[in-house]
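pinned: reference chain
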Amino acid sequence: MHQAKAILADPKLLKALQQLVHQAGEAIMQVYQTTDFGIETKKDDSPVTKADLDAHYLLVDGLAKLTPHIAIVSEEDPASQIVPQTHNCYWLIDPLDGTKEFINRNGQFTVNLALIEDNAPSFGFVSTPIDQTLYWGGKHVGAWRLRDNTLEQLHTQASQTPMRVVASRSHLNEATRNFIANLGDTALIQAGSSLKLLRIAEGEADIYPRLAPTCEWDTAAAQAVLEGAGGKVAQVDGSPMQYGKADILNPHFVASS
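pinned: its C-alpha cells
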C-alpha cells in the first residue's frame, strides 16, 4: 500500500500517470482508424497488433521516467515476467486488453495499468480508448471515473433482483452457464475485456463469475478499481487472488459488489 498512497499524495504524479494511460489509449485509436492493424500471432496463439506494441512502448517509457524506482511487467515483454520473483512492488501492464475485441472493431477494449504490492493490486488505472473514459482507484483509497470532463466517485450497489450477471461475449462456457443457472433469477449483461469488472464498480452489475482462463494483467487494474468502489474479487473458494505467481494464469474467480 505504501506506493499507492504515495501516488495519491502526489497530485502531480497522479495526473502524469492519468495522462500517460490516456496517451496509450490515443496511440491505440490511431491504429484503430487505419486499415492495417499489423496482426501477428504470439507463441501462445493469441493475436498481437501494432496497437498493443505502440501502447506497450509508450507506457514502459513513460513509467520509467515517472517512477524509475518501480519495476515494470508487461504482457508484451515476456522477459519482464521474472520481475515478481525479486520485487514485491511493480507495475503490471496490459497495454491493450481485448485484442480480439479491437480486431473485431467492437470498441470493447481497455488499457490496464496496475500497481502490485505484496502480491495484490493496490492501485489501478483503466482507460476505455473508444470514449476516452478513465477509471482509477484502489482498495484503501476509493475509486473514480472521469468521463466527458465529469469526475465521479464510484460505489458498488446492493445486489438487485433479478441478479445482474456480467458474462464475456467470447467465453460463456458450460461451467459459467451452470454457475449462472444456480443463481436463480438473473439478467445477463454482456461486456468485453476488463469492462466486466468495471460494470460492477459502476453499480451497473452485481456479479461476474470467470470460470475460464485469464492472466494476471487482464484483471489487476480493474480489480483495484472495483475494490476501491467497495466490491470484491476472490477465487471460487473465497480465498484472495494472488499476483506475482510463477504461473501468470489466474485461478477461476468471482467478482461481486
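why pinned: The chain has a mean pLDDT of 95. The longest helix spans residues 11-32.
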